[in-house]
Each structure stands twice: as C-alpha cells, then as structure tokens.
Design a protein that fits this description.
35 helices, mainly alpha, rod-shaped
Amino acid sequence: MDVMGDKATLFETGRFVQPSQGDAGEAAEEAAEELRQRLAAEAGDVEAMSVLGAMLLRRGDLDGAEPHLRAATAAGDRAAANNLGVLLHQRGYAEEAAGWWRIAAVAGSAAAAHALGRHHRERGDEPAAEYWLRQSAEQGHPLGAYALADLLEHRGDGGAEEWMRAAAERGHREAAYRLARVLDRRAADEGEDGADNGVAPLEEAERFYRQSAARGHRRAALQLGAILEKRGELKEAGRWYLTSAKDGEARAACALGFLLRDAGDTESAAVWWLRAAQDGDGNAANALGALHAERGEPQTAERWYRAAMDAGDVNGAYNLGLLCAEQGRTAQAEQWYRRAAYAGHREAANALAILLLQGGDTAGAEPWFSKAAEAGSVDAAFNLGILYAGRGEDVVALRWYERAAAAGHTEAALQVGIARLRDGDETAAERHLRCAAGGGSAEAAYRLATVLDARRPPEPAHELGETVHEKTECEEWYERAASQGHRRAQVRVGMMAAARGDVVEAARWYRLAAEAGSRNGAFNLGLLLAREGSEPEAAVWWTRAADAGHGRAALRLALVYARRGELVEGQRWADRAVSLGPGEVSERAARLRDALREELSA
C-alpha cells in the first residue's frame, strides 16, 4: 500500500484536518465547549448552568439562556444572578433586573454592583448610585471606577480624578482619555513647572493618551498626534493622525492634511482634507478653499469656503471676504467681512474697517478697528494708532502703538521708538527700536544705528599712526538696514567704507543707493568717481542728484562746466545751487554765478 498516497488522499478529504485555527475551528471548539457545559448542567452542575447561560446570553439567545441562569441563581451563583439581571434588562424588565443585581452585588459581585449603580443613576437616585458604584470600584472593577468618576465629576465632587485614574490604570480606554484631557488642561494652565510628584502633567497626559489610543480610541490618537507634532516628532504624529483618521475622526484627517502639506505633498493633503470636509470639518473645507484659490480656481474655492461656513466655521465667511476683495467685488467682500465680524472674527473686523477706510468712511471704520483690537487683533491696534496719528491725536495713537508693539508688531515698535526719541527718552527708544529691527524693520535698524552712532567715541589711533578698525554694533545695524535696501543706510555704509579707504565697497553702496533714488548716494558716488579721475561719469551722477534737489551737486556741476568753459551751462547750475541751498552752498554758488555773469558780459 502506498502510505504516502493514502495520507494525501485523506488530507484532501479533510478527515485529518484539526479545527484548531480559523473561524471554523473556533466555531467547532465553541460548539464542543457548549456541549460539555450543557451535559454538565443537565447533570446538575451549578457552575455549568451559569457558564452555559452566559454563553447563550452573549450569543443573543435570551430564551435559551434564561432557564439556565435562573436555575444557577436559585442555587446561589452570584455570576448567574448578575447575568440574569442583564438578560432581564435587555428584555425591558429594569426593576426585576435591579432586584437580581442587588442580590448579586450583596453577594460580592463587582459587575452587579456596577450595573445596579448605573440603574440608580439612570433613575436620578444619585446617593444610591454612588453607594453601589463605590462598592464596585473598591473591588477593582474598571467600569465601576469609571462610572463613579463620571458621577463625581458631574456633581463637582472631589475624588473624581482618583477614580478616573484607577479605571485608566486598569485599562479603561475612555477613562484614560478623559484623565489625559484633565492633565492636558492642567499642563496648559500651570506650564511645565506644574509637576506633581516629579511627573509633569503633560508627560502624564501623553502616557494616558497613548494608552487610550493603543486601545483604539480615535480622539486619544488625535490628541497624541497633536502633542507629538508640537514637539516636532512629525513622523510618529502622522502615524497617530492616520490611525485616528481611518477610524473616522475628521479633525485627525484635517490635521494629517496640514502635516502632508507642510511636507510638500499637497496632493495627498487634499485627499485627507476632502475626506474631513465631507465629514463636516470646517477647517478642512477652508484648507481646500485656500488650495483651490492658490491654483487659480476661485469658483471651487468659493464653494469650499461656503461649505466651511455651513459647517459653522466663521473663517469661511472671512475667507469669502478675502476672495471677493481680491476679485474687486468690494460690496460682496464687505458683506462677508460683516458676517464674520458680527460672529466675533477679529481679523474680519479689522479687514472690514480697512475696507470702509479705503472707501472714505472713517467714522464707520473706527468702531470696527476698536472691536478687533479689543478682541486681540494686533494689526487692528496698529491701524488704530495710524488712524489717531492721522488726526493729530498723538497720545492716543501712541497708546495703541504700544499695545501692538507689546504683542510683537514690528512697525508699531518702530513708531513707539520714534515717539520716544522725539520725547528724549533714548533708553525706551532704543529698546523698541531693537525689537523692531530684530523683527526685520530696515528703518528701525537704521534709526537704532544712528542712536548708537551718536554715542560712539572717536576711534583710537594705533601707536604707529595707523587706524585700527573694528566693526562696531552701530555699523552692523547700518549694514543690516543697507542690505534690506534702506537708502540712507546704504549711503552711511558707503561713507564708512570710504573712511576705511575701501573705495570699491564705498562705490558699490553709493551706487545701490543712487540707483534706488538717493540723491546723497548719487552725490557721494560722483565725488568718489571725481577723485578717481572719472569726472565725466561723476557729472552724470551729480546731474541726477541736482535734478532731485541736491544743492551741493548743482554747485559741483556749475564748477565742472565753468572749468570746461561752458559758462552759460555753468551759470544755469549756479542759479540752481543758489535756490537749493543750504546757506553755505547758496553763498558760494552766488559768487560763482556773479563771476560767470561778469565774464560773459566782458
């Protein structure tokens, strides 16, 4: 006999297949177990009656479970009494269920005490509910601990956090999530210094979020992702956002979209935003609107902004206002700004005020600026400063500038710095100018440099008579302003380079300033070129400076033309220099003009 062949045939028929894996195997095992329990129950085994009743109850076979549970309960099995209560509760016999739960709870069943506590709470009997839930919780039942914590928290009683923690530590995922939320809020209120027993609240919150998320709690996964993203752990944050989003959490899908956008994957971001927006997330709808607006698809953008607004996100109305304003639809922009502003959107209130101001309605603009500023809009506070300064109400203007500057507004800090300089408070001026310059204001960097320059002592000379030059702080600020295109700073940097003998560097800065329209830059560039023997080119720059109103440049041109023998042209530029000044230049130009006139009439 071919044994191997026979075995193969038998395997194919399934006669040697063991039901140890897969659904079929599990079903067979369960059936076998049920049969064993049934036989034992028929033989009078009380525990088997209880187990068989529980099995049938889990399956939903209430009619089959009830006689076994009643028989086991009559024999004193407390687990059966609890399950009989569950069965009767499912049938709608709440009071009879409570009676059996009481019997089981008195006998020491933590599950029954929990069920009985829930029963009393549903009927508004909170003292009885607390009593039985506490019985359950003190026996270590996680559901009892959670229900007790929920009851205490609802009433505002102490001890809620202790029992929530107990439930969380025993694996209750909702308790872990709610405890994490409490700790998260505490961390926000107290900061990282609010550590309890050496453990920071945020650290504990993260632990419980992680515990809850690992058990499939989608909101915990969202919050865990947010903590990780804030900490810069973007890859892990993305994984938790993805887990939460796949479980149907729209906010997680939205957050995942922003994470992907920041990573440069706009297409994938749009997929998740679409999913979140379709689930009613207004933030995601706004993001989609902005994406389509950037792509030059205003109609699609408008549709998503409207969807955001319909989802209750006031940013939708504000974004619609921005979109209409960009398209020149001023009336519609005003309508949407008003809608958002009335809903408390501070930037919409600021935008509405600007729109009204541009239309000449100063009286209408002012209250909206005020409303936005009072709500915390830094731009609105700065705009109020401009509004009052334009009316000559400098004291009120300064107050709003200071408010905006305190919130980090660069241009407001510059205005405060200028005002303090005007008042002679150089220390306060320097402080605000440093803030503005650090925020990127070229004008502030230039003014700060002038303040520091005025304090600078004369440069010491080297023993051998050679000047030792080390770059000072004021020079660094001049250079920063110059590199940002500030014309006066460029001229000043050019002058410092010329003083060091660096003609090439000086010419570069003078030329940059001159080409940007600086008459001093053009004049100084002309001087530099003239000293280098390029007087014709120098005259070109002096002409540009003189045409812009530079008296010394006009005088230089008068001298150039006089030397060339072009007396009429020289007299014309001398006249120009006389009218432009300043006084010293006017005197010299007048003498030269008279001399040229005499020579022409001779």
